Amino acid sequence: MQYENMKIGSLPAGMIIDNFIHGIDPYRYSDYLLEIVNATPFFLERSKGEVYVSPSSEAHGECDCISPHYQLDFKLIASGSKLQEKSIFSSQIFYEAGVTYYCGSRVDDNSKNYHPIQSTRIFAALRPLSLDDLLHIRGQEFCDDQVERDIVQLMKTLETNKNLFLFFPYNIYFDKNDNILLGQNIAIQAIEADFRQVLTYRAQLRPTKDTYVCFLYAHRFILTTWKDGSLLFLDAVPIEKSPLFMKLKDFSEDMLSGDMLK
């Protein structure tokens, strides 16, 4: 197993677009991340054993995940254009009377209002950029380029003056996955390399705030923290620890696709 053999797949729309699946209780991706936080000893230690809950309201900028002793805000590390593409062009999912229906996307190339979306794979867009490059892009008054607009939006997200739990909504896998620990380390190093400059930007801007990065590998949520210029492993939480995640996964897998988390 080595970096060159690593593969990556985006999570389906039903798992990252809030309320994408029709006919089930309203949900947000942050709801299953809350379940994962509450299943992680590290975060329970930060909260002094108190269970984290969602705020009753976010009208005044409350965090998504709160306890009396520690708070976190959940953010997706994905471009706005990629999320828009998934919302519009993914097959719709409906659930009614015990039956799940998979239908066409909201818009396709035969639709009257169809126009293609140039979506950005944010990790690939960041890969060649230095911190100076990022500062130059952030300093522009207007960005004509979609990639640069997505980068600016991510940088604005990272400027948030809160402890951030950043969820990278992709599953990392290897066709031959015979050494879980090695694969995990390769994945962490790869994500660190792609996001090093933007995470450095956040650390310089918000030095008193914590930053966590989470992604999926081997049917586990891999939790890391950004510290002293590196992503440090915190924990690996089985996906089964989140009932909502498992429910959305089941709805998102049709009878032909099989397990989407390879």
Protein traits:
two-stranded antiparallel sheet; seven-stranded mixed β-sheet; alpha+beta; globular; single chain; 9 helices; 262 residues; 21% strand; 9 strands
What is the secondary structure topology, with strand pairs?
Blueprint: E1 7-10, H1 13-16, H2 29-38, H3 41-46, E2 65-66, E3 71-76, H4 80-89, E4 92-96, E5 99-103, H5 122-126, H6 131-139, H7 146-158, E6 164-173, H8 180-205, E7 211-217, E8 220-227, E9 230-238, H9 243-252
Parallel strand pairs: 3-6, 6-7
Antiparallel strand pairs: 1-6, 2-3, 4-5, 7-8, 8-9
Describe the structure.
The protein is of the alpha+beta class. 35% of the residues lie in helices and 21% in strands. The chain has 9 helices and 9 strands. The protein has helices at residues 13-16, 29-38, 41-46, 80-89, 122-126, 131-139, 146-158, 180-205, 243-252, and strands spanning 7-10, 65-66, 71-76, 92-96, 99-103, 164-173, 211-217, 220-227, 230-238.
Structural class: alpha+beta
Summarize the helix and strand pattern as letters.
EHHHEEHEEHHHEHEEEH
Number of helices: 9
The total beta strand count reads: 9
Poorly predicted ranges: none
- Determine the strand fraction and express it as a percent band: 15-25%
Overall tally of domains: 1
Q: Tell me, briefly, the overall form.
A: globular
Short description:
This protein has 262 residues and is an alpha+beta fold. It is 35% helix and 21% strand.
